[in-house]
Amino acid sequence: MSAPLLELKNVTKRYSASGSADGVSVLAGITLELARGETLAIVGPSGSGKSTLLQIIGTLDRATGGEVLLDGKNLAALDDQQLAEVRNRQIGFVFQSHYLLPQCTVIENVLVPTLARAKSEIRNPKSEIPAARAERLLQRVGLSERLHHRPGQLSGGERQRVAVVRALINQPQLLLADEPTGALDHASATALGQLLVELNREEGVTLIVVTHAMDLAKRMGRVLELGDGKLR
Hints:
By secondary structure, the chain is α/β, with parallel strands linked by helices.
């Protein structure tokens, strides 16, 4: 049996609060294993810490205690520069807002994460050329006619599809999606949910989705609920 891609071991998160000696506990000992290629939905009420947990997994925040291991690497032991490299090479992010650069075209937005990659990595003959990969993925998500459009010329669903492709451009091992359908109408949300599931299979990427949408959650292989700082 192969080692899990992601392991969380008794992860806690506390925030200091004025007038409180102990602060506020958001995560109270999260333990989780996620296999390569697996899909997981994390659900729970607003304010339960879902986004905080996703940010810790994605190295955008640090846990107060416990360990987060990605591909066997203890993320707590890495400095900020090393964490930035992990985010760029191993993790893709999709948020409720697309965060596309308005002055850039669709394909330019998709290629932004590749700018931080080493030239030697891009020139590796085993690596797909970034521009070719961008065009292929944009065609895959139905945007081949939108490569040179700017975000303002796209629908909400189209902008989120661009955001998904941007998240996948560096061939990450882990894709994290925080309420990816929250700002979309029902039809666009349904289409995006199906697309995420299909890309999980096609790209072999492990997928974690934080969502209030049970229709989206039920598409994932596992659904866990976060409440009272615990994941069940």
